[in-house]
Amino acid sequence: MPAQTTAGPDQAPVPDLHGIVAGFVAGALAGPVVPLGKGLINDTFAVTTTAGCYVLQRVNQRVFPQPERIMANLAVLAAHTAGRDGLRVPALVAARDGRPFLRTAAGDLWRLMELIPDAVTLERLTTAAQAHQVGRALGRFHRLTRDLDPRRLGLTLPGFHRTPDYLARHLALRAAAGPGAGDAAESACMAFINDRGALAPVLEEALAAGRIGLRVIHGDPKIDNILFHAVDGRALALIDLDTVQPGLIQHDLGDCLRSCCNRQGESADGLAVRFDLALCDQILSAYAAQTRDFLTSGEVAVLYDSIRLMPFELGLRFLNDHLEGDRYFRVAYRGQNLHKAGVQFALVADIEAQESAIRALIARAYGGADSR
Questions:
Q1: 235: which strand partners?
Q2: Which of 319, 302, 314, 310 is nearest to 351 (CA)?
Q3: Would you say residue 10 has pLDDT above 80?
Q4: pLDDT for 280
Q5: Distance between CA 338 and CA 263 in Å, rounded?
Q6: Could you tell me the pTM of the whole model?
Q7: pLDDT at 169 exceeding the cut of 80
Q8: What are the beta bridge partners of residue 95?
Q9: Is-contact 92 113, C-beta < 8 A?
Q10: Residue 271: pLDDT band by 50, 70, 90 thresholds?
Q11: Measured between alpha carbons, how far is 73 from 152 in angstroms, rounded to an integer?
Q12: 32-37 contacts: CB < 8 A, separation 24 or more?
């Protein structure tokens, strides 16, 4: 009987995974097709065939309405990094028609890619060595792509990381609901946002003023998108490359630190959230070792703003999704997105409380550069 599973947000059920695998040139299926990972957007499965082990994935076209653009970007990235020492880009398996993806009769886009052997993901960092590997991995990605013209890549997720747009959407939702709407937890989040509205455009203003510029970004370098070697702990690859596109690397570094330096995770109980300075120090120093020779003083100057901005932005996104009925992020219960928004805002507050220490870490990592 064909394997079946529950689809991701707003995706149709998956009726026949075996038949989809057969549409690729990857040997005969040699085992069950089983769900893989905890991704919130795409449907992902582990596949074992007579030719090897693979990752099968259906791209969520509600989130990514032009998935062919993702595949074109992956081809550009793979060609640019081929033969270079650094992170691996998982190789795509061709479909039987020769394309690097398969379109079903229902219009879904599926892709099959290599499963990197001896690789694991981490739910959270527990050692300084792991944090160092994270910083090195992200820095290596930006180093490998520093000479890749971002104009060669298409926008796979237009508007992604445009914090002013998320804020405008939030204010529109609030206005539509009317005064006094929402419970105490929603009101607390809204008051937090009111106090920090000026934070939202800080990177767009720096871009418009020419202090920073567009580069190639990963787009989502959180902890569970980094593969580590199961034995020696080396960072092997950045995965989940759907949001590789032109952007601001400050978003990448800020999002990485947001994800890695909150040991309690995005669903922390009781909002006991702390931004771990020791982990931040390890990530920043390893990242700077890869990037200090090409990042400009203007790009370094806004790094603290980026570290503060990214949990603020994600909190906005979680809260907006809650107010819109949980249409984007997969949730286990009603109110989970609201709780996650509160966690991110608590992280912002702790970052603000440690501003001087964080700026000192940035200055030390970049050889004394003033991060103000």
A1: 228
A2: 310
A3: no
A4: 98
A5: 19
A6: 0.89
A7: yes
A8: 24
A9: yes
A10: low
A11: 8
A12: 32/3, 33/3, 34/3, 35/5, 37/121, 37/224
